[in-house]
Amino acid sequence: MRPSSSGSDSLFGPLFGDPEVDAALTGRAWLQAMLDVEQALAGAQVKAGLVPQPAAEAIAQACTVERFDVADLAERSLAAGNPVVPLVRDLGARLHADHARYVHLGATSQDVLDTATSLVSARAVDRILAALTGAAGAAARLADEHRHTLMVGRTLLQQATPITFGLKCAGWLVALDEAVAGLRRFRHGRLAVQYGGAAGTLATLGGQGPAVLRLFADELGLAEPILPWHTDRTRIGELAASLGTATGVLAKIALDLVLLAQSEVAEVAEPGGGGPSSAMPHKRNPVRAVLVGAGCRRVPGLVATLLGAMAQEHERAAGAWHAEWETLTELLRLVGGAAASTRELLGGLRVDTGRMRANLDASGGSLMAGGVAARLAGHLGRNEAHDLVARLVHDARERGVPVRALLLEDATVRAHLSTVDIEAALDPTQHLGAADEFIRRALAAHEEQR
């Protein structure tokens, strides 16, 4: 296996990653995590009376990433199928024979790499959570600031009824907060050490295996599993699902921003106004939102790979386990990049409230036609009222006049509704329902979660 460099050093890496998350996913970061595991294992075994203190201290001193060559370990990992085997050999070679025999005591390669996976994931997820929390904070600010900013609500990509931009932002906020809550639950309860030895029995430790397992978990600040999870990949599946869910939230926000930034809509713009075009000087493209969406599109396939790898043979897998390493690394990298970019997008989003109102007014009152039909329904019946107003809206569009004008002219309408009634029915502020209360609830829930 050649460890992934996390993609940050590639031509396209910066487009889809985040420097802070990428730094936690490099080959060097993975190597440091494996060394942390070996050091913690020796420390736990000292407490259990299995390893002399001087040996554990010598192992700790040797577990310094600068003493190892990542590329060389990667090349030599081909022989054993994983980088732990050459790492343990090199680690032992750096120690006196009296200390070297305590390196990797009772462990197998999967114990080290799985526990390193938990460490790498924890470090990356912490950074992802910080970005998601920042994005949620920005969404909360927008929701509060624009709770009364009227705009067109859109369903099936068509204009529907009035909403407020604050309500839209509150929807983003709740989704982000739920993604944070799910990922946080996993981070602090399910990332666990792995220690089972050759076949999950810790036979070489006699009856002291469970005690060392507990001490090992304490050393690293990870969860202690009930038993080794070599081929029970529930934890990996849960991590993939949590990351995939968070990505779905980020993808939805990015898609909304792309649509709202369209020239014909122009209700929001990215920080700085957007990115340039190589061919069209007039264009300002929503490039950050586009890149978030592009990165998010790659995530479901990675999640599916990790879920598909959960079926593993007997006590140790023949290939499915190996499929996890780079898949999970790339998944964490893409989610980290999308989360960081979304935080920046929402934090500096340009909101054109005037354009939002202009787009609403451009409907000529047709978006509020349902209010007129509702007032007429008590007089004409629901279906007849709906059909009458629908015909008047159609005629208004065909003639290029506001529907208000035709409502005021129609004899049937005027027989039951006064001018004041019609004006009230066409007032967009009367069509917001519980929007303000929903925003209040979203903001209150966000404060409670914080």
Structural features, described:
With 450 residues, the protein is mostly helical. The chain has 2 domains: 13-355, Fumarase/aspartase (Central domain) (Fumarase C, Chain A, domain 2); 366-425. It is built from 20 helices and 4 strands. The strands form 2 sheets. It has a two-stranded antiparallel ribbon. A hairpin with a 2-residue loop joins strand 1 and strand 2 (158-164). The radius of gyration is 30 Å and the shape is elongated. The two termini are 41 Å apart. The model is unreliable at 1-5 (pLDDT under 50).
Number of helices: 20
- What's the name of the CATH homologous superfamily of the largest domain? Fumarase/aspartase (Central domain)
CATH class of the largest domain: Mainly Alpha
Strand content: under 5%
The number of distinct structural domains comes to 2
Tell me, rounded to a whole number, the average pLDDT: 94
Arrangement of strands in the largest sheet:
1-2
Global morphology: elongated
Radius of gyration, taken over Cα atoms and rounded to an integer in Å: 30 Å
**Ends: how far apart?**
41 Å
Report the major sheet.
2 strands, antiparallel
Estimate the helix proportion, in percent: 55-70%
Structural class: mainly alpha
Say what the CATH topology of the largest domain is.
Fumarase C, Chain A, domain 2
Total beta-strand segments:
4
In CATH, the architecture of the largest domain is: Up-down Bundle
Throw out a few tags for this protein.
450 residues, mainly alpha, Fumarase C, Chain A, domain 2, 2 domains, two-stranded antiparallel sheet, two-stranded antiparallel ribbon, 20 helices, 4 strands, 64% helix
